[in-house]
Write a structure and sequence with these properties.
Blueprint (H helix, E strand, L loop, with lengths): L8 E2 L6 E5 L4 E3 L5 E3 L2 E6 L4 E7 L10 H6 L3 E4 L4 E4 L16 E2 L2 E2 L22 H10 L5 H9 L18 H7 L18 H8 L1
Parallel strand pairs: 1-6
Antiparallel strand pairs: 2-5, 3-4, 5-6, 7-8, 9-10
Length: 206
């Protein structure tokens, strides 16, 4: 699934049905490489069919164009685990939308130089905190453990923290000092003091 490709394309010929040879144009790849469109056919899984899929033998990955899918009145939804193709007619509530990327020809262009949020507040998409940021929030949160820091932000139990994953590679020196305890003196089996204040006098002489 690719929002940066304008047409469906594949290098796996056996996936296509009703293939016909064509003399198409060239498609540019990364690294100044390119491949020629030499055929097209239909790709289907018996539930949905994609027509006019370009066959390019030099292509390394099979690509489905998001814009071409949306032209069939379907919509797509991406998460951190999967991409969903939704039935025609599905609409996202306006209050759920924080940014828009208008379609320009067959690509979706996001203009980050202007405020394109639908709500008035700015949004932060940073998830992993740097080492310096993690140390800073560790101090702000009263030197709690790393596990507890991540638990608070993952469960939305603290306000004002845009970061979602803290990392600490070094132990906190202040935490070590706070947990440090004096090692107790070993118990003496035989009493070596015979006179009052003899132990204090020995310490003063030393």
């Amino acid at each position: 699934m690719d929002s940066g490709v304008s047409r469906h394309m594949t290098s796996t010929l056996y996936l296509l049905k009703d293939v016909k040879s064509i003399r198409g144009g060239y498609v540019g790849f990364a690294g100044n490489q390119c491949g020629q469109i030499v055929g097209e056919g239909t790709l289907t899984n018996e539930k949905v069919a994609f027509k006019n899929v370009n066959y390019i033998s030099e292509l390394e990955n099979n690509l489905l164009s998001i814009s071409q899918i949306c032209d069939k009145q379907f919509s797509t939804h991406f998460t951190d685990r999967e991409c969903l193709i939704l039935k025609p007619g599905f609409k996202i509530p306006e209050e759920w939308i924080i940014m828009r990327a208008p379609r320009v020809n067959d690509l979706y262009v996001m203009n980050m130089s202007t405020a394109s949020t639908s709500s008035g507040s700015a949004q932060c998409f940073i998830s992993r905190a740097s080492e310096r940021e993690s140390v800073l929030w560790h101090r702000r949160m009263g030197h709690i453990s790393l596990r507890k820091m991540n638990h608070l932000v993952h469960k939305n139990l603290v306000e004002g923290v845009n970061l979602r994953n803290f990392q600490l590679t070094e132990d906190c020196l202040d935490c070590k000092k706070g947990k440090k305890m004096m090692k107790p003196h070993p118990k003496k089996l035989v009493n070596s003091i015979n006179l009052p204040f003899e132990g204090s006098l020995c310490m003063l002489l030393l």
